[in-house]
Known about the structure:
CATH superfamily of the largest domain: RutC-like
Order of helices and strands: EHEEHEHEEEEEEEEEHEHEE
Radius of gyration: 18 Å
Shape: globular
Structural class: alpha+beta
Strand order of the largest sheet: 1-2-3-6-4-5
Mean pLDDT: 95
Number of domains: 2
CATH class of the largest domain: Alpha Beta
Number of strands: 16
Number of helices: 5
Amino acid sequence: MPHDRLRKFNIRDRFAAGDWDGAMVVRTEEEIYVSGQTGSELDGSRTHGSGHTAEDAAIQAEIALRNLTVLLGEAGATLDDICRINVNISDRAYRIPIYRTIGRHLRGVHPVSTGLIVNGFARPEIVFTLDVAVVPQRGSKHTRLRRYHSDDAQYGFERQKIGCDFCQVVRAGRRIYLRGQMGQNLEDTLTDIGDAGTQAVQAMRNVETLLGEAGAGLSDIAKVILYVTDRAHLAPAREAVLRHLGAVPCVLSEIIVKGLASPDLAMEVDVFAVQA
């Protein structure tokens, strides 16, 4: 069966350039893909909160979650079907207002998450994008392991009152999504500030533990994304990740970002697994 492609648009209507027909939602037999949501209206006619303040960031997050709710509804899903969120932000100062808004909308859902500080987006007035992984539950609820509230967790050496319900692992059928793993252990202890290689060793230990708790193993990993905050961190972090993966020939992407959840963190790794 062909995929359902919903809310089709031409890119020239959003960026006044180019000529390409896209879709905001693609619904396959097992998963729903949604374009990254921002503070823009669904028709691209206006971006809210363009003043680059913390208050504007909260407004953009509110619009993004409103739009996401609408798009998932049109695809026959709800916010409860979200397995994973990826929050990309252009300035660390926006992190708390954006996450608090996300936390209100996703209270009780407990997705896994990765948060990145990046250099910018397609339009200068946009301060963040929200990407999600969605698997409709269809009567069989996702398994969400190691649930926690963000206010009780540490990010590096600090606690952040961002008001979100998260978890470390979501299992949706054969698909397994992990929270972005960093250099702190699963009890939130970080011992090696600035040492990307040592942090990556701990991150991969976490990955192996979490996959085991979800009934999977390293051999089920399909894709790894390695984020580092400085090019100098890339080689030691990569070496640690690949050493832990051993003979697992998965897909690997490497990205240098402006920052992670805390300045104490030098690397983060996203892992996507599908149990064979």
